[in-house]
Amino acid sequence: MKRLATLLLLLGAVMAPFAHLQSQSAPAPAQPVATQVITINIVAQLKSPLADLQALKAANQATLDQQAKTLQALDELQKQAEELKIFGKRS
After folding, report:
1. pLDDT of residue 24
2. How far apart are CA 64 and CA 25, in angstroms?
3. Distance, CA of 31 to CA of 39 (rounded, Å)
4. CA angle 80-88-86, nearest 5°?
5. How many helices (H) and strands (E) does the chain have?
6. What distance in Å separates the CA atoms of residue 11 and residue 6, rounded to the nearest whole number?
7. Given CA atoms 34, 39, 42, 48 in this order, what sign does their dihedral have?
8. What's the pTM value of the predicted model, to 2 decimals?
């Protein structure tokens, strides 16, 4: 019984300095005006990269369309070259 009492007394002595840490609650800090301005600037910057990305996507699509037209024209030239080879062998 003495051992249990001694153990509880030692445990209480060790835990006593930490008892006040759990009972205190820190107040929520108010967001300063500078942080609000920074947040607004970040939102504005996020819209700009999105617009830039959309512009790049449109430019890439235009490039892909141009490449498709060029590829089609090259295919037609290749067919015509093959026809010329066939006609050249016949004559």
Report:
1. 52
2. 60
3. 11
4. 55
5. 3, 0
6. 8
7. negative
8. 0.44
